[in-house]
Amino acid sequence: MAILRVVAFCAFVTISITAVSSSVESEAPNCWIEKVDKCWDEPKKVCDTVPKQVCNKVSKQVCGGTKTIQDCHTKTVPECSSVKVPKCWNVDKQVCNPEKKTSCKDVPSEKCWTEPENKCYKSYTEQCHDVVRKVCGKGYTHSGKKGGIVCSPQTSKVCSKVPVVECKQESIKKCKTVYNKECNEYTEDVCKTVQEQKCQDEEKTVCKDKEVQSCNDKEVADCKNVDVDECKTVNEQNCYDKSEKKCATQNVKKCDKGCQSTPAVYVVSRGGEDFE
Q1: C-beta separation of 34 from 250 below 8 A
Q2: Nearest 5 degrees, angle CA 70-CA 74-CA 76?
Q3: Which pLDDT score is estimated for 14?
Q4: Cys-Cys crosslink for 255: which of 29, 41, 146, 203, Cβ 3.0 to 4.6 Å?
Q5: Region of poorest pLDDT, from 103-117, 141-155, 251-265
């Protein structure tokens, strides 16, 4: 089997044909599988590390020679003075004030009055009444002989003392003791103890802190700040887009189109796309 490559120019298309050496004269299509390489451009970001010098203005102290300055510091010293301070204390004091008072007492007195009253007296009176009693004794007959019992009524007077109460109304004097309150006003001194404050001035030393500034001459280096360039190298990334060609092999079915006396079946490739 031999491979025949035919290149033709048709409608500004480049045609690559791979065919079997035997000619096909039949009208039925003849098909086969062919491996075709397909390629395309793929975008890719590429970064490179590039050293770069970066400079900044910095302030640096530059010294030359000496100079005299005032070196001052503050210190605290006590400042004292004599002042008069009142000293006070409490003392007990008797304070008396006249006050009006009232004194009362109960004074007894006799109160009498008359009242009507029934007064009864008991006396005895003699009351008598006749009492008939049967008196019996031996009797005598007409002939003068003693006979049987003979009774005869006999009246006797019986007296007894009977109490008699006699009442009459009399005026009776009655008295009772009553108490009347008698009050008298008088003045009396009432005293009480109170506290009184007494004060006198005393000499006292009072101190307070005072800040005092003390300065001395001092030799120091004569320095001044100047701006200088301070540089350093830093790595910077420089990135850009780049196209990378990538290819892949594909299995493509190829057939002839039933052309008469066509020496091969072909696949047209244009701009990365396949056409049969």
Answers
A1: no
A2: 155
A3: 34
A4: 29
A5: 251-265
Residue 27 has pLDDT above 60, yes or no: no
Measured CA to CA, the distance from residue 256 to residue 263 in angstroms comes to 9
- Residue 16's alpha-carbon distances to 1, 108, 184, in angstroms, are 18, 167, 159
CA 270/CA 78 separation, integer angstroms: 105
Amino acid occupying residue 170:
E
Can you give the pLDDT at residue 144? Answer: 59
Closest CA to 170 of 116, 113, 98, 238: 116
Q: How many CB atoms lie within 10 A of CB 17?
A: 18
- Please enumerate in sequence order all residues whose Cβ is within 8 A of that of 122, keeping only pairs 6 or more positions apart, or say none: 163, 164, 165, 166
Q: Which two tokens stand for residue 18?
A: 């791979």
Burial of residue 30, with CB atoms counted within 10 A of its CB: 0-12 exposed, 13-18 middle, 19 or more buried: middle
Residue corresponding to tokens 């009246």: 155
Enter the DSSP assignment of 20.
Answer: E
Given this model, what pLDDT does residue 249 score?
86
State pTM to two decimals.
0.22
Q: What is the pLDDT of residue 258?
A: 52
| Rounded Cα–Cα distance for residues 52 and 202 (Å) | 85
Residues in the chain, how many?
276
Average per-residue pLDDT in the chain? 76
Instruction: Count CA atoms closer than 13 A to 179's CA, side-chain side.
Output: 5
Q: How far apart are CA 117 and CA 170, in angstroms?
A: 5
